[in-house]
Design goal:
By secondary structure, this protein is α/β, with parallel strands linked by helices. It folds into 2 domains: 150 residues, 3-Layer(aba) Sandwich (Rossmann fold), CATH 3.40.50.12500; 103 residues, 3-Layer(aba) Sandwich (Rossmann fold). Helices cover 44% and strands 18% of the residues. The chain has a 4-stranded parallel β-sheet with strand order 2-1-3-4, with helices on both faces. Helix 4 packs across helix 6. The longest helix has 16 residues. Pfam families: Amdase.
């Protein structure tokens, strides 16, 4: 082994100027977050020229039930260590319901644990979670009353509603598509969402949560539903993207994905 080889092993490779690394912790059966988020950041890159790369760690989850969700939570620290090996700038814990299954406000502890694990591995990074991002974004938007769409069985949807209400936001209506196989959730057609959204009881609603699940595809419908209903439309994915932008200090400039990512927020 040459001296050059040794130096390559012990000297960190500098990050590319004009590029950010985003780490994701996702369920093993997730097929959506690693498509919708890169698409959102690709659109951002078209506007700003800044590049984003994605680096994932996976935790086992096949069926969306309380037992498997809680088991996944126990693996978050190991996943954080693994993804931080890529020296990412921000880590997003991209399984909303796994965090919410732990009870009100659980995102705060989950995010702190992931941040500690990454820092302990020598690669500190900003941390967000889909659960935390969703409730914090709704609060920032001033949304006091929302209607939500989930792919979950009704008991899990009730749990998600309770979690959101624990942040001081009233859920005035919800739709449960009752799909418990996570791969099947990723195959749901987002083109069905506009009709579902029209059926929501939304009188007095300040926002629509079109997909309270990072696995349920929704990006293709967000702008259409927002334009049609005339109120902000967010999803677990767009809220997570919004917080990633904030963590990086980048103002969103994404067209066609709802007002949240258009640059309207935060208001100056």
């Amino acid at each position: 082994m040459t001296e050059t080889d040794l130096n390559c092993e012990i000297i960190p490779v500098p990050k590319i100027v004009g590029s950010s690394r985003i780490g994701l912790i996702v369920p093993s059966s997730n097929t959506t977050m690693e498509t919708e988020l890169p698409e959102l950041f690709r659109l951002q890159s078209e506007t700003t020229g800044h590049r984003y790369t994605f680096h994932s760690a996976r935790a086992s989850l096949k069926n969306v039930n309380r037992e498997e969700l809680l088991a996944m939570v126990g693996k978050a620290g190991d996943c954080a260590v693994a993804v931080s090996d890529a020296d990412v700038d921000v880590i997003a814990y991209a399984c909303l319901v796994a965090v919410m299954a732990q009870g009100a406000g659980a995102h705060e502890g989950s995010e702190a644990a992931i941040a500690a694990a990454a820092a302990g591995n020598g690669h500190p990074a900003a941390v967000t979670s889909s659960a935390g991002a969703l409730v914090r974004t709704l609060v920032e938007l001033g949304a006091r009353r929302v209607a939500i769409v989930t792919p979950y069985m009704k008991p899990l949807t009730r749990m998600v509603s309770d979690y959101i209400e624990g942040a001081g936001i009233t859920v005035i209506d919800s739709v449960s598509l009752e799909v418990d196989d996570n791969l099947a959730v990723g195959c749901l057609d987002p083109q069905n969402l506009p009709a579902i959204a029209r059926g929501l009881k939304r009188e007095g609603a300040d926002a629509i949560v079109l997909s309270a699940c990072v696995q349920m595809p929704s990006l293709a419908a967000v702008q259409q539903v927002e334009d049609e209903l005339g109120i902000p439309v967010v999803t677990a994915a767009t809220a997570t993207a919004y917080e990633i932008f904030k963590a990086l200090g980048h103002r969103p400039a994404v067209a066609g994905a709802g007002s949240l990512l258009s640059g309207t927020y935060p208001r100056d």
